[in-house]
């Protein structure tokens, strides 16, 4: 039995050697490696800088993939990160948009030597198109925290606008969580 729910979408990023392929179970060891690297986890998760066990990783991806389309980010033929478009799971944001199809994007670049190379931004751009055109999203969110300036720039570069923020009380590093939103009417 698969841990990660499969889908059949492959997203190619025009004029690049970058594509998003369905995230297969065969890459669970790689997901474990990334989620067990304190530096990767520091930037990818706003919690208290904890790494994950193999069981944690299996549980996270099994749970998320039930309501998300999970992708492996492949650059020049090599896996470099993962991302997904997920049905909104935060109640306060779902309640803000009753009767709308609301999704969120999450992304991790696990190969640190490729940070800052535009891979995350390009991946987010194609995920936005996928969400609006294939999933018929009405609203799309990108959520990040104050300490991750690179992630905040990715949101803004892709046309998201800040729609709210809240104080974070249960994190040693995050003080503010930002909610960036994109409406299908304003997608570039």
Account of the protein in words:
- The protein has 188 residues and is of the alpha+beta class.
- The chain is built from 6 helices and 8 strands; from the N terminus they run E-E-H-H-H-E-E-H-E-H-E-H-E-E.
- The chain has an 8-stranded mixed beta sheet, with helices on both faces.
- The protein is globular.
- The termini are far apart.
- The mean pLDDT is 92.
- Uncertain residue segments: none
- Gross geometry: globular
Helix residue percentage: 25-40%
Strand order of the largest sheet: 1-2-3-4-5-6-8-7
**Overall average residue pLDDT:** 92
* Overall number of strands: 8
Task: Report Rg.
Answer: 16 Å
- N-to-C order of helices and strands: EEHHHEEHEHEHEE
Biggest sheet statistics: 8 strands, mixed
Class based on secondary structure composition and strand pairing:
alpha+beta
| Residues in β-strands, percent | 25-35%
Number of helices: 6
How many angstroms does the end-to-end distance come to?
39 Å
């Amino acid at each position: 039995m698969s841990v990660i729910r499969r889908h059949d979408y492959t997203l190619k990023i025009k004029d690049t050697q970058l594509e998003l392929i369905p995230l297969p179970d065969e890459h669970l060891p790689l997901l474990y490696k990334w989620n067990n690297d304190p530096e990767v986890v520091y930037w990818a998760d706003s919690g208290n800088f904890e790494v994950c066990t193999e069981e944690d990783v299996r549980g996270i991806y099994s749970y998320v993939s039930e309501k998300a389309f999970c992708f492996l980010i492949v650059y020049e033929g090599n896996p470099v990160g993962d991302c997904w478009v997920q049905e909104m799971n935060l109640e306060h944001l779902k309640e803000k948009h009753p009767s709308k199809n609301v999704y969120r994007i999450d992304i991790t670049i696990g190969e640190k030597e490729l940070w800052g190379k535009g891979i995350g931004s390009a991946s987010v751009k194609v995920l936005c198109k996928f969400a609006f055109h294939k999933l018929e999203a009405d609203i799309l969110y990108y959520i990040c925290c104050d300490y991750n300036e690179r992630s905040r720039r990715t949101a803004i570069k892709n046309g998201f606008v800040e729609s709210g923020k809240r104080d974070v009380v249960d994190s040693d590093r995050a003080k503010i969580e930002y909610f960036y939103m994109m409406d299908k009417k304003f997608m570039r």
